[in-house]
Amino acid sequence: MNAIPNQRHLYMGTFEAEAYWRDAQLASLPALPDRASSAIVAAMDELLFSFCQPGDALLTRYAISPVHRQYIAQLGFHPAVNERDLTDGMERAGNVSSASVFELLGSRKADAGEGFPQLEGCVLSPFAGLPHVEEAARAWGITLHQPPLETIRKVNAKTYSSDLKRSLGLRNPGYIVTSFADVAEAGRKLLRDGSFLIKDDFGVSGKGNLHITSTQMLDRIVSYLRGQERKGKQVLFLLEPFQEKERDFSCQFTIGDDGSVDILSVQWLANTQFSYRESLSPDGAFLERLEREGYFSLMQDVGRQLYQDGYYGDVCIDSMTLRGGKLEPIIEINARKSMSLIKHQLDTFLAGKNMRGTLTNYSLSHDGSLSYEELLEGLKGEGLLFTGEREEGIMPLGANTLYVNTGGRDGENKIVGHTSTPSRNANGRGGRSSAKQVRVSGISAGAGDGGSEGNGVGKPDLNGNKETAGSERARGKGRLYLELVAASDEDKMRLTTKLERFLAEHHLTVLN
Fold this sequence. Notes:
By secondary structure, the chain is of the alpha+beta class. Helix content is 29%, strand content 22%. It has 15 helices and 19 strands. The protein has helices spanning 18-21, 35-42, 66-75, 101-106, 133-140, 149-156, 158-167, 180-191, 215-230, 284-292, 295-308, 339-351, 372-381, 400-403, 489-505; strands spanning 9-12, 57-58, 80-81, 123-126, 175-177, 196-204, 207-212, 237-241, 245-255, 261-272, 275-280, 313-322, 327-334, 357-366, 393-396, 420-422, 432-434, 476-485, 509-510. The strands form five sheets. It has a five-stranded antiparallel β-sheet with strand order 11-10-9-12-13. A four-stranded parallel β-sheet has the order 3-2-1-4, with no helix packed on it. The protein has a four-stranded antiparallel β-sheet with strand order 5-8-6-7, with helices on both faces. β2 (57-58), α3 (66-75) and β3 (80-81) form a beta-alpha-beta unit. α8 packs antiparallel against α9 (215-230). The two termini are 32 Å apart.
C-alpha cells in the first residue's frame, strides 16, 4: 500500500531488520552461525517487486537478474531498478560489511548515480525502518514518511509485545528477565508446569528462541548468560510457557497518519522450527471464527495502542490456535512489512485474474550450473511456468536467493571489477559465476562458500567435503521463493509433485 498516493515510491529493505535494532550490549543466546542462510536473507529484498506500481522504483542489495526482470515485466511489473550492486567496491573477501541497504545507498551518491534510477522525490516505503535511512534520503533527495527510528525499535521488541498483552488483559504475557538470576528463578517456576521458551528481545526467523525442556538445559543457559553478564553484557529476555499449537497465522494491517487501522489480510503460516516456510489463504469459516471471537476488534485495539505510542505504517501480528481449540491472538508484534504482506500483494495481483496462490520456498543444494534462464525455460517446457495467461503454474519470485551461495548471479554482472565467467559444467550450459567471491560474517551478506574460483583448490560442500581439481562443481545452498498458482488443493499437490520431480532431474536437492 502506498502511504502517500499519486507519488512515485521507492521500495527497498533488509529483511532481518531485528539485527539492526538490537543493542550490541545485550547478552545473546547460544546459536550456530549459518553464513549461507545469512547470504540468502540478504538477497530476499528482490521479493519487494510485488509492491511496485507503474513508475515505482525498487533498489536491491544485489542487482536483479535481467532474466528475472524480463519475467516479471511479462506479468506486468515494471519497477525502475539498480543495475549495479549496492555493495560495489565495499565488500572484500574475508571482511564483508554488515551495512544495511540504506547505509550502502547513502555511500553510493559519490558514483553520480550511474546504474541507478532517478530517486529524487520518491517516497520511501521500506521493508522496515532502519538506521542510516535519513542519511540516504538526504543524499538522494528521497522523501521519508515514517516514525522516528527509536519508536520503530521500541514497538518491535518482544518486551513491548509482552507489556501490551498485559495491558490488554491477555493471558500468558510471560516474564521479562534482566539478569541471569532472573532467568534461573522464572525458568524454574515455568518448568513446574511444563517446558518454556526463552526469547531474545529482537529474535527473528528461528534465531533468538530456545525451547527449554529440563532443569539441566536451564542450568546450562543460566551459566552461559552468567559468563556474558560478568563481561558487561546486559541480560534482557522474555520467558513464556511453551504452548502446543495447532496452527500459526498472522494478521496484516496498516496504521494511517490519523490513527485509522486498515486490516488487509489474514494468512495461515506453515513454519519449521520457528522459521517461515509458507503463507496460505484461510477459508471463510476460519475468518468467521476470528470475527466471532473478537480477534479483529482486538487487532483494532492493538493498532490504536501502537499509534498512541507513536507508530504508524505496516504491522504484522503473529498469532496461533492451540490444541484444544483456544486462540492465542498475540504472539508478537512485527511493526514492518512481512512475508505474509508480500503474499497479500500477490493475492491482490492474482485476484485481478480470478486466481489464487500459495507463497512458499524451497531450500536447495545445487552447484549453480543450471542458469536462471534455463530454469525458467525448463519450467515452461514442462508446462509449469506461470505466465499470466495460464490458470495455474509456478511463479518464481527471484533469482538472487537461489544463486548467491554458488557464485552464480544469473545474467551479466554490471559491477565494475566483477567479471562474469561461464559455468564449468561439462556440457557448457548455464549459470555465470562472479569472479569476486564475497564472504559472509554474522548478519552481513554476499556470496557464500559455494562455487569455485577456478584456482584448482578444493572447496568444502554443504557437508564439509572438498571438491578436488577436475571434479564436479562444489554445491552451495540456495532458496527458490515462488508462488504456487492453483485453483484447488489437488491442483496444488499436482504442481508440487511435478516441480519437485523437475528439481531432482536437474540435480537441485530439496533440503526443507
